[in-house]
Specification:
With about 190 residues, the chain is of the alpha+beta class. It folds into two domains: about 70 residues, no CATH class; about 90 residues, Glutaredoxin (3-Layer(aba) Sandwich). About 45% of the residues lie in helices and about 10% in strands. A hairpin with a 2-residue loop joins strand 4 and strand 5. Helix 2 packs antiparallel against helix 3 and helix 2 runs parallel beside helix 4. The protein is elongated.
């Protein structure tokens, strides 16, 4: 599947619907999503392929790409909102809601599948009580799929808060999660 094609604005173009004045106003917005989108758009627009770095910047700043950010980005790049939304929803990396306190990514690519990743996925869904792309009801863990962590020789693999773990069994995964929760508790105390 190839990514959706969002035609970038020509370099120097202010965007038919969103000129510099609209962007200046958005930068002063009291809405964090609008402000972050305007700041990122100001930095990147006019450069080829500006949409992805803008989306990365917004997510880095806010932890997600809220719906309110989309119109500002679309206007700045002279794209439709649907085009921007299409790119956001195409890439699993981008999220439209803030993640939980921990992010658990379970590899679902071929090598891990062959070594029991599906069983691991069933176990983690049951343990956390939520499906992929969702967060546990207490906001502790967001569960995401990932497609290869570069640990194919030590499948199945997961990543918790950016740290990879190899040869993961359901028991090992429980221990990894327990440890992370414990550390979070200790850090709070
Ligand atoms: S397929 Fe899972 S780490 Fe490569």
């Amino acid at each position: 599947m190839s990514p959706p094609q969002a035609t970038p604005n020509p370099p120097g173009s202010a965007g038919a619907r969103g000129g510099e004045s609209a962007l200046s106003a958005a930068r002063l917005s009291s809405m964090p999503a609008v402000k972050a989108a305007a700041q990122a758009a100001t930095q990147w627009r006019g450069q080829p392929g500006a949409l992805l770095p803008i989306l990365h910047d917004v997510q880095d700043q806010l932890g997600c790409i809220p719906a309110e950010a989309i119109p500002t980005i679309a206007e700045a790049l002279n794209l439709s909102r649907a085009e921007v939304h299409g790119v956001v929803s195409f890439y699993p990396h981008f999220r439209t809601e803030p993640a939980g306190r921990h992010v658990l990514e379970v590899c679902r690519a071929e090598s891990c599948q062959a070594m029991g990743a599906e069983h691991l996925a069933d176990h983690v869904r049951q343990t956390l009580g939520c499906d992929f792309h969702h967060t546990t009801s207490d906001g502790a863990v967001t569960l995401e799929p990932v497609y290869c962590l570069g640990l194919c020789g030590q499948s199945p693999a997961v990543m918790l808060d950016g740290k990879p773990h190899a040869r993961v069994t359901p028991d090992k995964l429980d221990r990894i999660l327990d440890r992370a929760m414990q550390h979070a508790q200790e850090a709070k105390a």
